[in-house]
């Protein structure tokens, strides 16, 4: 399939960390691409990935994080990796990270994990991604012993991915902060993984929802390790997801210093609870972010 057919198918370190963003926002900063986690718009990606990407680009999104890679077939959203990369190139878009299906490999052999990681590396390299991200473990897996096992496997995967020339990160939800008899999964992940091999992707919604710490406090404890951010808002009543600007999280107050964080990429996200539909929510969040938050990044 040629290029035309693809497109036609669519029809500050130190004290600055405790200051408000306004105190350091005027300093010279990298200009990050406005990113979106495509899981937020999974219904539309399932219908027509190319039309969806074109619509997101029109909203101002330039960079994406994928989900749902078919590692056995080497397929993203129904397209071979090379075909999907061509779509991205034609639309002048990028994919800097992907969430890959690591959860089943927590209980599989190291050889099975190695084979899976090799397949992820192949897919990520075709897309010219910078990071492979381990996004979660299943509810039945969330025990202290399994968090310790996961830390071991995070190190193994991180070593393999780093040797391949890519970065590797773990993405938090809220369950990692739950008390499990005086310990929690997040502390195990932080302290039992090698920071040079396992970076962190902080989901600020889940930190504000479930952690005793703020994003700034967590980053202060592990500076330069939080290379990616997820930014989404929290409904004022239900505490579910909502569009940026419609919820209870004041990002002008809680956004960390990107330099201290080690930030390379960020993604807006909304996993559900759309005011109207996923496309309208993506547009609402984009408008709010560009007006109120993008100046800090």
Could you walk me through the main structural features you see in this protein, from its secondary elements to its overall organization?
By secondary structure, the protein is of the alpha/beta class. It is built from twelve helices and twelve strands. The chain has a single domain (3-296), classed as Divalent-metal-dependent TIM barrel enzymes (TIM Barrel). It has helices spanning 3-8, 42-47, 49-59, 81-90, 110-126, 144-163, 185-192, 204-210, 215-221, 251-254, 258-261, 278-292; strands at 35-37, 63-66, 75-76, 79-80, 94-99, 131-134, 167-171, 199-203, 226-231, 233-234, 241-242, 265-268. The strands form three sheets. The chain has an eight-stranded parallel β-sheet. A two-stranded antiparallel ribbon has the order 3-4. Helix 5 (110-126) links the parallel strand 5 and strand 6 (131-134). The radius of gyration is 19 Å and the shape is globular. The N and C termini lie far apart (38 Å). The model is unreliable at 2-30 (pLDDT under 50). This is Sugar phosphate isomerase/epimerase. It comes from Agaribacillus aureus. GO terms for molecular function: isomerase activity.
């Amino acid at each position: 399939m040629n290029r035309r057919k693809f497109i036609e198918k669519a029809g500050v370190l130190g004290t600055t960390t405790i200051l408000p963003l306004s105190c350091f926002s005027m300093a010279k900063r990298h200009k990050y691409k406005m990113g979106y986690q495509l899981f937020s718009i999974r219904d539309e990606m399932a219908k027509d990935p190319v039309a969806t990407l074109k619509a997101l680009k029109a909203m101002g999104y330039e960079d994406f994080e994928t989900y749902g890679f078919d590692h056995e077939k080497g397929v993203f959203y129904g397209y071979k990796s090379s075909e999907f990369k061509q779509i991205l190139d034609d639309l002048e878009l990028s994919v800097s990270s992907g969430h890959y299906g690591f959860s089943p490999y927590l209980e599989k052999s190291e050889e099975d994990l190695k084979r899976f990681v090799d397949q992820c590396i192949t897919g990520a390299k075709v897309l010219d991604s910078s990071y492979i991200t381990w996004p979660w473990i299943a509810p039945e897996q969330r025990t202290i012993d399994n968090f310790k096992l996961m830390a071991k496997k995070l190190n193994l995967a991180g070593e393999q991915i780093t040797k391949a020339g890519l970065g590797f990160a773990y993405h938090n939800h809220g369950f990692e902060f739950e008390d499990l008899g005086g310990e929690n999964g997040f502390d195990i992940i932080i302290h039992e993984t090698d920071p040079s091999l396992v970076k962190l992707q902080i989901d600020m919604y889940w930190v504000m929802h479930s952690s005793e710490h703020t994003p700034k406090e967590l980053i202060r404890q592990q500076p330069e390790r939080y290379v990616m951010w997820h930014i989404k808002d929290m409904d004022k009543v239900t505490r579910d997801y909502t569009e940026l600007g419609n919820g209870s999280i004041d990002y002008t107050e809680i956004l960390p210093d990107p330099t201290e964080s080690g930030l390379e990429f960020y993604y807006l996200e909304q996993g559900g609870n759309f005011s109207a539909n996923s496309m309208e929510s993506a547009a609402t969040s984009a408008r709010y972010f560009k007006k109120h938050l993008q100046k800090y990044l």
